[in-house]
Specification:
Blueprint (H helix, E strand, L loop, with lengths): L15 E5 L13 H19 L3 H10 L7 E5 L43 H22 L3 H14 L1 H8 L1 H11 L10 H19 L15 E5 L4 E6 L4 E6 L5 E2 L6 H20 L2 H17 L3 H6 L6 H10 L12 H4 L8 H6 L4 H22 L6 E5 L2 E4 H13 L6 H9 L4 H5 L16 H11 L4
Parallel strand pairs: 1-2
Antiparallel strand pairs: 3-4, 4-5, 5-6, 7-8
Bound molecules: zinc ion.
Protein name: RQC domain-containing protein
Pfam families: RQC
GO molecular function: 3'-5' DNA helicase activity
Length: 467
């Protein structure tokens, strides 16, 4: 008789299903070599007692799991119709179908380690009892596909009191982490209060830091692995990418974190570190005032962004101050002496606070505009002019406009200009060749008529690129 889990039933072992393991198995015609009959009889006896002890619900679950009209424990049969010495783990059948032709895969992790033939009578009873319980647990999980369980786990994770707390205090948790590394800690009062606060932060933030970034407020989006832990009625949901896993209990529907904390304590602690920091901030109103000044200056300087950028190369105090301020960030609203507000302050250079005491926007604006004007004028002076002398020898000057006239001509003409021919042309010597090429009508004919020939050659070599 063939069952849906591919196997065979033999009298008198009616509670067992014999299943080929390993590759390509022929039909099994008989079972139980002499020495195996004793152990099979014991297994049959224990299994039938365990099956009889199942509740109707468990019975039904196992029938469905093993896709059979009756509950039978699958027993592996290896080559030559011998018993495979290890019982099959239920994970073999979880969310899977196997074919009789190929037999069950011979994979160590799909079988129990223990060789059941070597167990004492008591040990065998214990092993089979555990095994039937495990089968029942797997049968429950097999009722729904993995994604259904994953959805339940995701919901339960989001509902976990610590994760809910973290989500509701997300702004405070993030603010604490930012503030703990902030440059402002160097200027707030008093160092001993800050040292104490930071010490508390290390303790209070530990459980939040133990959760990977992608799991902080809800389950991460990576591919998950589900493994069953029947001893705890739990599914272990792991993310290999995050190296993190949580346990979900099938019966109470709750998620268990790797490190559970007292929620009551966590609620108090997160409130306390926020309050303690706010007290520190209140002690440092001079810093808050300084930050407000900087915040205002930054807003006032915003329209001068282009001007500041154009002066960026200058070591002028107004420029240096404006550039440092440009790298700073402030909250949109006025800065308040509290954790959330100050966590939005990024001040790469805290010496700005000192400088802000002496700086007024009017002065800053005036200095920047003045510097910008000066730079513009200097740039204008540096601009090339037609009268710039690009080459000179003795009293003879070759100006930028002369050079331009020659290079423009060279670009337009199709005539292959040698140094010699160009020198003659610039000198204005109407040789037969120049006449033949119509060059005596060229715009640059005689441009350097007053120059000695040898100077013309030198000037061309120095200032005019040929071909
Ligand atoms: Zn992940």
């Amino acid at each position: 008789m063939r069952e849906s889990i591919p196997g065979f039933v033999f009298e008198p072992y009616t509670s067992l299903l014999f299943v080929p393991v390993g590759r390509k198995h022929p039909e099994i015609r008989s079972i139980g070599h002499k020495e195996e009959r004793a152990i099979l009889s014991r297994v049959q006896q224990i299994v039938s007692a365990e099956i009889a002890a199942l509740s109707p619900e468990e019975h039904l679950l196992l029938e469905q799991f093993l896709a059979a009209s009756d509950v039978r424990l699958p027993i592996g049969i290896s080559k030559k119709e011998r018993l495979y010495p290890h019982f099959i783990k239920p994970v073999m059948f979880l969310w899977k179908k196997h074919s009789l032709k190929r037999g069950l895969p011979l994979q160590d992790d799909l079988f129990y380690d223990v060789r059941y033939g070597t167990l004492s009578a008591d040990e065998l009873v214990f092993h089979v009892k555990q095994l039937v319980k495990e089968y029942v647990f797997y049968a429950r999980i097999d009722q729904a596909p993995p994604h259904t369980w994953l959805e339940k786990i995701k919901e339960a994770y989001a509902d976990h009191p610590f994760i809910s707390l973290a989500r509701s205090k997300k702004n405070v948790i993030e603010a604490v982490e930012v503030m703990n590394k902030s440059s402002l800690l160097a200027v707030l009062k008093y160092p001993e209060d800050l040292a104490f606060w930071r010490h508390r932060v290390e303790i209070v933030m530990r459980p939040y830091r133990q959760i990977p970034a992608d799991w902080k407020w809800s389950v991460c989006t990576h591919e998950k692995e589900l493994t069953l832990h029947y001893e705890e009625d739990a599914l272990l949901c792991s993310c290999p990418a995050c190296s993190f896993s949580v346990k979900w209990n099938l019966f109470n529907g709750r998620v268990e974190l790797p490190n559970e904390v007292s929620i009551e304590q966590a609620v108090k602690r997160i409130a306390t570190i926020e309050r303690q920091f706010n007290e520190i901030a209140l002690q440092s109103m001079n810093v808050i005032e300084g930050l407000r000044t900087l915040q205002q200056l930054k807003q006032q300087l915003a329209p001068y962004e282009e001007i500041i950028r154009s002066c960026a190369g200058e070591a002028h105090p107004a420029v240096l101050f404006s550039l440092s301020l440009r790298d700073a960030t402030f909250p949109e609203e006025q800065i308040e002496p509290d954790l959330l507000s100050l966590s939005h302050v990024k001040l790469p250079d805290v010496t700005l606070l000192k400088k802000a005491e002496h700086i007024r926007f009017d002065t800053l604006q005036k200095e920047l505009l003045q510097l910008h004007e000066e730079l513009k004028e200097q740039a204008l002076l540096r601009q090339p002019k037609p009268t710039d002398v690009l080459f000179h020898i003795g009293e003879f000057h070759l100006t930028r406009s002369d050079v331009l006239a020659v290079t423009d001509f060279l670009q337009e003409t199709d005539i292959n200009m040698t140094l010699h021919l160009l020198a003659q042309l610039l000198k204005g010597t109407a040789t037969a060749k120049i006449r033949q090429l119509e060059l005596h009508h060229a715009s640059i004919f005689g441009l350097l008529a007053a120059w000695p020939d040898k100077y013309i050659v030198k000037a061309v070599k120095a200032a005019i690129p040929l071909g």
